[in-house]
Each structure stands twice: as C-alpha cells, then as structure tokens.
Write the structure tokens for this entry.
Amino acid sequence: MELVHYVVDGPLATITLDSPHNRNALSKQLVTELFGHLQAAAADDEVRVVLITSSGKVFCSGADLSEATADGMEEGARRIVELQRLIVSMDKPVVVRAYGAVRAGGIGIVAAADIAVANESATFALTEVKLGLAAAIISLTVHHRMDPRAAALTTLGGEVFSGADAAAYGLVTTAVPDDAIDERVAELCRSLATGAPQGLRESKRILNADLIARIDAKGAEMAALSARLFASDEARESMTAFLSRKK
C-alpha cells in the first residue's frame, strides 16, 4: 500500500504523507516513497513549487521505532540525511504544511524546507533526549534554522512546544490559526509559482549554500552517531518500554 501520494496540478507538486498506522513515522517505505516523489518533482520541468503535507492530524511522528529496535538505524540515518539534503538542494522551493503533531525526525523535514507553515496549536517536540538518543541527523537542518537558545531549550528539554513557539524560535516561517492554514499555504504556493525557473533555482542556491555545506561536512558523522545511539542498551530499553506503553 502506498504511504506517500504524489499529485501535480499545474506548477504545484503536492506530496502527502499518509501512513496513519504509525503516525507518518519515517519507515523505510515512507522515506523511500517520499524521496522518489521529490526526485520526480525535481525532474519535472512543469513543476515550480513542491508542497509536503500530510493527511490527518499528525504531520510526522519521527523515526519508526519498531524498525529501529529490530533492524538498527545505520541505513535509516544515512537515508534521512540524504532526504534532508535533497529538499535543501533541489532547484525548486519546497513548502511544508506542518499541521498537528510534529516529532523528532519529522522536525528535520520541516527545517529542511524553504518555507514552513504551522497551525498555531500544532505541537512540536524533539523527544530524542527522553529515549537516550540525540537529535543528531536532524541537527544538520534544525540547528541551522533555530535560534541557538531555543535550540538548546528544545533539544535538551525534549518538551512539547506550539506552532506559535516554533515560529518565534525560527523553526517555521509562520504560524497561523488552525482554520487558516490551507488558505495561507495555497497563497504562498501561488506566489512562489510566479517566480521564473532560473530565478528560483539561483536564489535557492544562494540561500542554501551554507546549509548544504553543513550537511556535506557533518552528515556522515551525525548518521554514525545516530546509529550508535539507537544501538545502545540505554536507548533500546527506552524504546522498547515506549513501544510497550503505546500498545
């Protein structure tokens, strides 16, 4: 069953995460499908803007802990680094509609996007610290976007913060009332689509040059760290206990 849907309507490519059984967790299948759809949008000359959204009230719950406890995170961590780099480096602006709950690895997708719109009552949390992990691979994009004090507070605390907080912290571009998010996202996408392809491409390359360099310089190190932490006894015990509580 497809977990990520892809629809092109004129200049807009919409990619929708739709894996309700695990709250849009970053499973191997979901990441593979998301990666493929982003590549398709990048290769389509008619597409000028890419929108990543989700079905339901959860944008993304982060890493798929069931897969992580069973198979480890060596391949998964590398793939999520590559996913963030693709979003940052593709020649077309990427917009994220961050509606509802956004956790851990899902925040990396939000941070990688050029523009992110959240609803004010959305909930964000960098929960890794609670499980003996660290926000390693997503630190590549998250710490680039967020105010350093806010990054320390949210990364070390692991507590929930709102869409309005996320905007104040620099994680998202703007937060809007819950019933206004679709209109605001559509408005932004229409505006971005008026840009000329060359103008969009070159402007994005200038904007993201430092972030791409950061990912290239530290991506392998952060992926290795993430895999090591996921394989540790402390983290495996915490993840197993967390999954048991969810059942």
Notes: The mean pLDDT is 96. Strands lie at 4-9, 12-17, 49-54, 58-60, 94-98, 101-103, 115-119, 123-125, 161-162, 174-176.
